[in-house]
Amino acid sequence: MGIFEYAPAPESRDIANLKPNYRPFINGEFVDGNGEPLKTINPATEEVLAEVGTASVSDVDTAVKAARKAYTNVWSKMPGSERAKYLFRIARLIQERSRELAVLESLDNGKPIKESRDSDVPTAAAHFFYHAGWADKLDYAGLGPNPQPLGVAGQIIPWNFPLLMLAWKIAPALATGNTVVLKPAETTPLTALVFAEICQQAELPPGVVNILPGAGDIGQSIVEHGDVNKIAFTGSTDVGKLIQRQVAGTSKKLTLELGGKAANVVFDDAPLDQAVEGIVNGIFFNQGHVCCAGSRLLVQESVAEEVMEKLKYRVSTLRLGDPLDKNTDIGAINSAEQLSKIKGLVESGDTEGAHRWTSPCPVPERGFFFAPTVFSDVQQSMRIAREEIFGPVLSVLTFRTPDEAVTKANNTPYGLSAGIWTEKGSRILWMANQLRAGVVWANTFNRFDPAAPFGGYQESGFGREGGRTGLEAYLNV
């Protein structure tokens, strides 16, 4: 009997309504940017998707002035109940255009359509719905009497979750009465610019949201601008440190959500089949392009062999390929630069003596793809156990006792997330209190909710996004 095989189930790229050209969005209008245009490409095929006009330093100043005017004259004076109506309207428009946004995200980013369709876009809408509910209730958020907005928020987002990270930042900023100047990642600007269209559809007052595509110099200009009151950055730890130095000595408020090297800890009493699903989701979701990815698997020694056997079988069933195929589990790496970084760190694992196993799945000849990879016999001193790979690569270590598991899990400069797999509720509570991580999942992984704050410690940054706690980052309290 032949092996069961899926028939192709491609989503139509026509739904994305791709345009040949996109432009920056300033003061409620799409304008010609004064920066050097960039070409955004499909990482699965290496084809050019569109030409994107970029902002210049002078455009940053224009956008900040527009945001300041909108803040002073309109948005900060508007009752919270009225601001909420705009956020609700934006949320509904995201839902109405969800299929278009999902296809566009997969084209521009390389992630599987089932992830952008079922996770990214619905959660982005959920953040606007959730924060719309807070807009007229800030006096009851437990943040003190009469909390006030900060003013103009400068926001810089990464390429791994372009639309979702936009929602994480813009929704709380608008709900609390701030205006926004946002720079999307250089390689994934398209859904942010379609979001600008949604702002127009929602009849958001001009200047409340401004979207400036560009490279790192535009992000730096936003950070350094004297009339920006708040910086929110999600991205690499190295860039986060630069931003922290730049805002030191100023009155700007700052939140940073940076890298991670999360430990996913499996005890011998865990439901192993369930744990394996959580391991796979923890590291191979979005090709491992996740700050909180469970990239270090700590397995209790007595079940390590069984877990590895189950894990290899499960990983070998993952389908790598066309991101627009609804059957695809692993899409494309976002860029040639990121693929090169992943390959370099994998080579270091080989050199330092770890044992590499790579899924036998076929890899397309064109595009930026990397097959799911698992390293065993990993030591804590190895680069693959210390550095953020940001790709579909898992490092497996073992432990004997709960205390050893905690010690190994905390042996990292990061502290964004962690996972615990065990049947014992008391062990979950004990270990969650021992782990230095902003988010600890128990018998699950990568679960997000707009009502739950998210953020890290140490080199994973500081501040929280989401939930009641996340409102404080955009308020004088």
TrEMBL record:
Pfam families: Aldedh. Residues 30-477 form the Aldehyde dehydrogenase domain. The active site is at residue 257. GO terms for molecular function: oxidoreductase activity, acting on the aldehyde or oxo group of donors, NAD or NADP as acceptor. Keywords: Oxidoreductase. PANTHER family: ALDEHYDE DEHYDROGENASE-RELATED. Belongs to the aldehyde dehydrogenase family. This is Aldehyde dehydrogenase (NAD+). It comes from Amycolatopsis xylanica. The lineage of its organism: Bacteria, Bacillati, Actinomycetota, Actinomycetes, Pseudonocardiales.
